[in-house]
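stage 2 :: seqdesign
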């Protein structure tokens, strides 16, 4: 089987500025892969995060220098392919992910099955949340109007005006909220005060309240907090999971930091082994990345797969999202195609 590979960088723009505790962006540059065997065309996406790696220009350079090694990877032997990807691209988790997704998509298309079927998942899954990034208070009503169809909201905090943000939101809605601090609370005392305050605000859980390197403090916070704690920046790769026992109640798995579907499946297995609840999350991504992670959706207690619906224009069509309900297709592979 002779394969060919093409790639392009695409700029995707968000409907609103997407701001978290450590950054604010109105657009993201992602790298799209097309892997073809001459009959089927498969897709992959690298949406790099500054928190974990260099940007898209570095990915393009890696693709140019390692194209032949990528084309020599195994389509059938997923475990060895992942080992090879980590050897080829140790500095880029999102590129590992893009290649792994594309190979899985081609594998599914050639087998005639949707990936969720190959993975033993189900079509039905819990609803996804919709993210409200940090914003000026006067913009919050507009963001909540955009999020009106969604029953679950994920609120980004980690500022010096967290209380004002929550008051502005609670003045508009009584929906269940999930709070993501993105390492924004720097001391244990601040985190305890935040967790105690949010416990009375109809919040479901608290995600990554403190910097990842302060794991001992996070464990102390877990003993204190009435809210479950979910790891994000602490939960990057499969090998991270055993060390989170006692500090967290759940983990967030993201393709762009774990290295793709092969590693995401390993993280699901490890989470079950260590009795962690599972959230499947995303960066700001097109429907390629979101469709890929959605193939594992039924294995999760919580979903935060809204990266594509935050976009002003998604250049691809894949899984549906109807007010947070993720709709998988029976199309082979990812079920993704370019938007016409």
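stage 2 :: out
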């Amino acid at each position: 089987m002779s394969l060919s590979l093409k790639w392009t960088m695409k700029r995707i723009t968000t409907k609103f500025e997407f701001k978290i505790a450590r950054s604010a962006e109105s657009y993201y540059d992602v790298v799209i892969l097309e892997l073809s065997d001459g009959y089927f065309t498969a897709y992959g996406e690298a949406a790099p995060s500054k928190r974990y790696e260099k940007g898209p220009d570095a990915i393009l350079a890696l693709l140019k220098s390692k194209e032949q090694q990528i084309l020599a990877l195994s389509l059938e032997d997923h475990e060895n392919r992942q080992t090879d990807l980590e050897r080829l691209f140790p500095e880029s988790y999102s590129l590992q992910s893009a290649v792994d997704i594309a190979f899985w998509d081609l594998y599914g298309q050639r087998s005639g099955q949707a990936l969720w079927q190959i993975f033993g998942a189900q079509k039905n899954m819990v609803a996804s949340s919709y993210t409200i990034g940090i914003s000026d208070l006067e913009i919050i009503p507009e963001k909540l109007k955009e999020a009106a169809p969604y029953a679950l909201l994920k609120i980004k905090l980690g500022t010096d005006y967290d209380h004002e943000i929550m008051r502005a939101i609670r003045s508009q809605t009584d929906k269940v909220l999930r709070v993501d601090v993105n390492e924004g609370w720097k001391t244990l005392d601040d985190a305890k005060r935040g967790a105690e305050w949010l416990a009375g605000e109809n919040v479901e859980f608290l995600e990554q309240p403190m910097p990842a390197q302060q794991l001992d403090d996070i464990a102390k916070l877990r003993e204190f907090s009435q809210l479950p704690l979910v790891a994000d920046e602490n939960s990057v790769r499969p090998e991270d999971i055993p060390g989170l026992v006692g500090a967290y109640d759940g983990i967030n798995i993201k393709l762009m930091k774990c290295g793709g579907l092969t590693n995401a499946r390993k993280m699901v297995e490890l989470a079950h082994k260590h009795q962690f609840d599972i959230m499947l999350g995303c960066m700001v991504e097109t429907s390629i990345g979101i469709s890929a992670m959605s193939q594992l959706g039924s294995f999760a207690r919580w979903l935060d797969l809204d990266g594509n619906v935050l976009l002003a224009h998604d250049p691809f069509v894949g899984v549906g999202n109807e007010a947070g309900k993720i709709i998988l297709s029976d199309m082979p592979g990812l079920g993704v195609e370019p938007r016409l």
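stage 3 :: structure notes
- Residues 117 and 324 are 21 Å apart (CA to CA).
- The mean pLDDT is 96.
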